[in-house]
Design brief:
360 residues; alpha/beta; Ubiquitin-like (UB roll); Elongation Factor Tu (Ef-tu), domain 3; 3 domains; 8 helices; 30% strand; elongated; binds flavin-adenine dinucleotide; binds FE2/S2 (inorganic) cluster
């Protein structure tokens, strides 16, 4: 009798285990699944992690500025087969046309069964870079320049205006930062990072990051970059750390002898928020095609400011005439970008000639 009890218990346990394995298989949870990418690459997947993490494990790096929290909407891909229905967390980021086309957020879709997906070819160029902080420089009281030396791989090839993602060590959060340096300096990536009060990544950069620290970057990403084949006159508008991608674009154009006419409006609150003023004033002395127009919205009495005063939108408005043949590059907060687009529209800019990077 005493022997019978453990035998029955073991039997019950075996039956439960078999049932669990069968249930797991039926639900597609832990078994091996196939993820087919762009009809030419198949990766075997175990477990049921998200498409974003699964691709990253296979060294395919989808932009994910919020680190998978469904707040940036950057991690889009096209789901062709499998994957289940759209989740409420995806809805705010998908237009009716995108839903129709099968566009989804890779941080929200799990690989639970065999799946066929499509991702833009240019994303296959994004890589993971091991870097070392080579230099940190205070540009203002709340903006720092960080220069990363690329260790492995040693070069990143990017278009002027694109961004990279920085992984904060220890807490593993990811944030996007525009590349502020010249694309030809491919062994170094400079970023201009403004401290956001209580911000996780920016507090780390401003309070803890040291020269010599090892940092992981991924990139390059983004469809905000200089239209190199165009000869149109350019209007650039930026505020705060939005100077970063414009600096890269201008460095590239300078190298070419500034072939296009560029007017660069930079909005700041008071003089202590201005930086790289000498660099851009020098550029305007060297190249008559380039004009730098810094503007202060709230100059302090001690600033002795003789330049433009007012909101950047008003300054652009009063210094601009017909923009029907011009191209615009905007960088900064979503509010600033929306307000600037209204002003540009007033001056007849064509929608297809407006490029912007919203630091949301
Ligand atoms: C494509 C792209 C390029 C970017 N390039 C740059 C760049 O070159 N330089 C740069 O400094 N930043 C840039 N950003 C913004 C950057 O990715 C982070 O969002 C920002 O640094 C805040 O990160 P955090 O972790 O410190 O703040 P979080 O911990 O994410 O946020 C803390 C709190 O601050 C709020 N918050 C977040 N961002 C801002 C903000 N910008 N202003 C005010 N409040 C905010 C949040 O809503 C939250 O309540 C870029 C963003 C994108 C999408
Ligand atoms: S990573 Fe930000 S929404 Fe998916």
């Amino acid at each position: 009798m005493n022997l019978l009890v453990p035998v029955i218990l073991i039997g019950v346990l075996i039956i439960i285990s078999v049932l669990l394995i069968l249930a797991e298989k039926a639900l597609g949870g832990g078994g091996e699944k196939m993820l087919m990418i762009n009809d030419d690459k198949v990766i075997p997947v175990r477990g049921d992690d998200t498409v974003l993490n699964t691709l990253s494990e296979h060294r395919i790096f989808i932009p994910s500025a919020c680190g998978g929290k469904a707040t940036c909407g950057f991690c889009k891909f096209r789901l062709i087969e499998g994957g289940g229905d759209i989740k409420p967390t995806e809805e705010p980021f998908l237009s009716p046309k995108e839903r129709e086309d099968g566009i989804r957020l890779s941080c929200q879709v799990k690989v639970k069964d065999n799946m066929k997906i499509e991702i833009p070819k240019e994303l296959l160029n994004a890589k993971l870079y091991k870097t070392k902080v080579a230099r940190i420089q205070d540009l203002t009281y709340d903006i720092k320049l960080v220069d990363f030396e690329l260790l492995d791989p040693k070069e990143m090839h990017f278009k002027p205006g694109q961004y990279a993602q920085l992984k904060v060590p220890g807490i593993d959060i990811i944030r996007a930062y525009s590349i502020a340096s010249h694309p030809k300096e491919s062994n170094h990536i400079e970023m201009i990072i403004r401290q956001v009060p209580k911000g996780l990544a920016t507090t780390f950069v401003h309070k803890a990051l040291q020269v010599g620290d090892k940092i992981i970057l991924t990139g390059p990403y983004g469809d905000f970059y200089l239209q190199e084949e165009s000869e149109r006159e350019m209007v650039c508008i930026a505020g705060g750390s939005g100077k970063a991608p414009i600096r890269s674009i201008l460095a590239f154009l300078k190298d070419q002898g500034m072939p296009r006419k560029v007017r660069y409006f930079f909005g700041a609150k008071s003089k202590r928020d201005l930086y790289y003023t000498e660099e851009f004033e020098q550029l305007s002395k060297e190249y008559p095609n380039f004009t730098y127009i810094p503007a202060l919205s709230e100059p302090l009495p001690g600033d002795n400011w003789t330049g433009e005063v007012g909101l950047i939108t008003d300054v652009v408005d009063r210094n601009t005439s017909d923009l029907s043949e011009s191209e615009a590059y905007l960088c900064g907060s979503p509010g600033m970008i929306n307000a600037c687009i209204k002003v540009l529209n007033k001056h007849d800019i064509k929608q297809e000639n407006v490029f912007f990077d919203s630091f949301s």
